[in-house]
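thread: overnight batch results

M.L. [08:02]
morning all. the overnight job finished for the chain we discussed friday. pasting input first so we're all looking at the same thing
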Amino acid sequence: MEAEGPYFAFIHTYKVHSPYDPEGEARERFVRSYDGELPDFVHPPDFPWGHLTRETLSAADTRYVSDLYDAEVSELDTAVGGLLEQLERAGELENTLLVVTSDHGEEFNEHSHFGHGWSLYEDQLAVPLIMHFPGRFEGGLTASVPVIGIDLAPTIARAVGLPPHPSWSGVALSPGNTIADRPMWVPYRTRHAGQAAVALRRDNAKLLDFPGDERPNDGNSGRQLYDLAVDGEERINRWEDDSVEAARWDRALTNLRLRYPLRFQGETVSTDEDVAEILKGLGYGGDD
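M.L. [08:03]
and the structure it wrote out:
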């Protein structure tokens, strides 16, 4: 592995993603004994419990599905380790900015559902962001405040000495950098046309707002307010505890929705049948 001059590599993998299909040593190490009816490899969208239904799984089934996922994480960890070894052997590791992250996590019945794309709980929002760059990101430094995906591009630009693009709204992270107080605003399109579920976070306080019957499995529609410092699993809804605090969050939510209106209508594009089937198999197509 050799590079002449600057190089960039984007490695995108679905290894830690449904269908959960670990093999070999990782499967033997992480998947515990299971005598249930689920198959060797599991793709939640293939089952009613993998959709917005009230059907769910037993504790043993849930543990099995989670074990499959853990084994996939181990497989990817090994693959990343192999990449680092190649970079080191080639003498490139000391001059390479390495970033490991993900676009979402997975839910394993923590809030009465499986997979991703159904909620904005931390099960799906809290993802790894690991950066290594000798002289800048090294030595076990940890961000002291929450960060968000839009921070990644300006952070990379600053680390390699480039100016941020004027359109970027994220913050460039660096050791000792103080991030001004800002809302962590995460919307996603729901089954309700024109309505969005949103998550709004400041420090360890987090507001969720699900429209209509968006959470039929657990009935958690409407406003939810959590203190992640003491309730990291988001079980204790504090929305009704303090009317003054609720009003403050309501104003913040209203202002952000006005400031960042969601655009649900996009351009229509055509996709050949093979690509459409691949996307549908990954959960990115179809009616569900």
